[in-house]
Amino acid sequence: MTTGKDKEIRQGFVNEAAENEVAENEAAENEAAAEKKAYVALPVDEFTYQLSSKEPVPGGGGAAALAGALGAALGGMVANLTIGKPKYADVEDEVQALNVAVYRVQKELLGLIEKDAEVFAPLADAYRMASGSEEEKAEKERVMQACLKQASLVPLEIMEKCAEILPMIGNLAEKGSVLAVSDAGCAAALLKAAMLSAWLNVRINIRLIKDETFVLKTDRRGQELLSECLPLADKIYSDVENSFG
Questions:
Q1: Domain locations along the chain
Q2: What would you report as the CA-atom Rg of the chain, rounded to the nearest whole angstrom?
Q3: Buried residues in 7-27 as b, exposed as e (16+ CB within 10 A)
Q4: Which residues, 6 or more positions from 61, have their beta carbon under 8 angstroms from its beta carbon?
Q5: Alpha-carbon distance 47 to 238, whole Å?
Q6: Can you tell me the distance from the alpha carbon of 134 to that of 12, in angstroms, rounded to the nearest whole number?
Q7: Pick from 137, 113, 121: nearest CA to 40
Q8: 128: which of 17, 138, 177, 215 lies 20 to 30 Å off by Cα?
Q9: pLDDT at 56
């Protein structure tokens, strides 16, 4: 005869087993997540090794975002070498504000390395979808069109972030420590490279998109950003170079 106490004990074993299973599953998930580190958490040599592999991500978009983040970081270097120096006391507050702003964009660009990989991986999978039947072809096309849009918007966002920070680099080149002016020039060069690289990633995806309104809007915005920012990047760079005499 089963008593109430027996049922309580049995239920306790069941609950404990279920809790153990949940804990084991969570541990496995955490272990898997640890094995696949975020790209921004990888050592530089490991990131560049993965970049050179045949895997679809990270790729040109992630490299563009990293170049932009490095440009932003150099802007931060100029600011930090200026802050606290009596010679630059009259621009201290402005440089402090620029330092905060470039660091924010730097973090956003690092986040876009991950975001670029997240949106491109499904596109790579879509290319491998079955297309034997008409139904399969239609489904593959539907998925690819959605993925192509996402894969073009992230590099466009990288361009937007680089465009946001370039005027700040110009200010830092003009008002920051003369000992770090070359770093401001390097920042401008990196941000220009980031924009051009991101633009190629926009173009390669929008050429396959059938939504003409989306294509025209995306292409127009990208062209606007290039027209606005490439001359500014070149000016910052040449001004820095010319300052050496």
A1: 1-36, 43-242
A2: 25
A3: eeeeeeeeeeeeeeeeeeeee
A4: 112, 116, 120, 151, 154, 155, 158, 197, 198, 201
A5: 31
A6: 55
A7: 113
A8: 215
A9: 84
Q: What are the pLDDT digits (tens) for 69-117?
A: 999 999 999 999 999 999 999 999 999 999 999 999 999 999 999 999 9
Tell which residue, 184, 164, 162, 163, has the closest CA to residue 173: 184
Contacts of 243 (CB under 8 A, 6+ apart): 178, 181
- CATH node for 43-242: 1.20.120.680
Per the CB < 8 A criterion, the answer to whether 75 and 97 are in contact is: no
Rounded to two decimals, the pTM is 0.83
Residues of the chain with pLDDT under 70: 1-36
Cα dihedral 189, 194, 199, 202, rounded to 10, equals: 180
- The span from the CA of 177 to the CA of 95, in Å, is 10
Pair 178, 69: CB distance under 8 Å = no
Structure tokens at 229: 């920012």
Give the tens place of pLDDT for each residue, 136-148.
Answer: 899 999 999 999 9
Return the pLDDT at 23: 58
